[in-house]
Amino acid sequence: MDLVARCAVEGFFAGLHPSPFHGFSVEYSDHREYHLGDDLKFVDWKVFGRSDKLYIKQFQQETNTTAYILLDTSKSMSFAGDGRVRKIDYGSFLAAALSYLMLGQSDSTSLVLFAEKVIKHIPPRSRRTHLNTILAALQYNRPEGRTNLAGVLHTIAETTKRRGLIILISDLLDDEKDIYKGLAHLKFLKHDVIVFHTMDHQELNLDYEGLIQFEDLESKAKIRAFPQSLRDGYRERVAEFLDDIEKTAGRSNIDYCLLDTSESLDRALIAYLAKRKRMM
Q1: CATH class of 63-279
Q2: Model pTM greater than 0.85?
């Protein structure tokens, strides 16, 4: 889990320019020319000695953000349409990468694992060593129970003492109206919210061929069908579902990002950084 987090974040930043979050903090980022009135303690005297020009050190800004990562670990998250990456693994990798990134920026980070109720709650901390605690929880989490997303969101809203950034990682396979009420509760309490809607490629496209038996991972209900005869109607219904979630989130000023588990984590990291920048 530690390796995945580091590779995802460091690989992502390898092709980018220095951080846009400029300010004065503990992590060095870049230089800019000295301007009259700048604090001399931030002058890079080594550069001055080599070039006889004054440059100011820029650093990544500390925002004292408190981030709460909510990861759905219900049975439906154990699905892997291609047999490789389960949604819960993808969500765990994303939570690990975000935690690595946040704690590297001195953001206070919390992890909540949930299904029908909160299964594990790691309180927010900003120490670098806190990453080990979060990664251990992610390493050994297992899908269990049915989804009760709305109830968990209300619980988080009622028990979270400090306003911050709520990051929800879930397939959102629950009653849509109840989910919206839970998200609205968080927004009412002035939390910033970003939803990473984690779906398997097969859930989005139904690209199976031949007679297939489908089983609901939570209710165990089964149905046999030829997917090719259902595909057009299925995709239309999924598109309506996704469009409704995105529009409802937009009306509530909630950031929404659909993630296909067959793709890299880059889209999620970009969405998070864009959200964090707007909060500054």
Answers
A1: alpha beta
A2: no
